[in-house]
Amino acid sequence: MIEIFKEFVFDAAHWLPNVPEGHKCKQLHGHTYHLKIVLRNEICEPEGWVSDFGEIKAIVNDVMKLVDHKLINEVEGLENPTCEIFCIWWYNKLNSALPALIRVELRETPTSGSIYQPTKLI
Known about the structure:
By secondary structure, the chain is of the alpha+beta class. 20% of the residues lie in helices and 33% in strands. It has 2 helices and 4 strands; from the N terminus they run E-E-H-H-E-E.
């Protein structure tokens, strides 16, 4: 088994509706998100790869259209768009198209982020 990854960058705005009054994240604000997806599988022959990076990019970019430069609170499933919930949302959106997907990492700042890696067998 070998793991591969691909990284993406996009911008989106949000606010957190369930934090206490006065919390800075209750206000509308934006982030430049860094998304990293990790796939694990055997190397496919004759190509010699786990998956075509171009195909991965097309799949992720198709989902990214839902959130890039958007107010993500308005996206179904992201009404309370914490980094943790957003990370799981990404996994759920990509998992069926990328069956070798094992982990999603999402950074909302250079020093803060979330990692979602459910237990599954490949």
